[in-house]
Amino acid sequence: MTEQLRGSLEVFGFADLLQWMELNRRSGRLMLSRGSDRRAVDWRDGEIVYVSGFLPRNRLAIHLLRSGALAAPVLYELLAQSLTGGGTLSRLILDGGYDTHDGLSLRVEELSRRLLFEMFEWRDAHFQYDPDYTVERILRISLSMRGQALALQGAKDADDSRRDPGDPRRTNEPDRRAFPFARRDISERYWDLLEEIG
Fold this sequence. Notes:
With 198 residues, the chain is α+β, with helices and mostly antiparallel strands. It has 7 helices and 5 strands, in the order E-H-E-E-E-H-H-H-H-E-H-H. Strands 1-5-2-3-4 form a 5-stranded antiparallel sheet.
């Protein structure tokens, strides 16, 4: 059993944490939290194998809906099957022929990158590393992200956004003036609205 590591991102920055995990070839789960927003980064031998968020807008199902990869009726049916013991959402998507393995891998990586890059802006957040957490690859999906490369890009993006306060990447808040009211858009924004009203 290896000792757990915990701390604050004010002391140990997210970029440093990613590099430390990669260089020391760590395995396990790195949990990060800021208020009600919690995220998990799963590692195996210094490689990121999965990233997930616990808020509805950070879930794979919502990402697939928003990206247009799955239509709402199909997604709701697959989620119902998954919740009643029919298997994982990703397995149901592949078995049902709704996406290819490569296509789903790309969508998982898109979501993972977004979740990771948002955390570079987190200061008032805490982390906990559990080396004993058993990490399994999700359907053999392999992410092409490396801790050091992410750390460099994330630090550059954060620095750029601090220099340009008008940059929309500076905040995670959606632009309220750009809220579309088309039927599909309302369906896609459902989870965001639910979070806002508590």
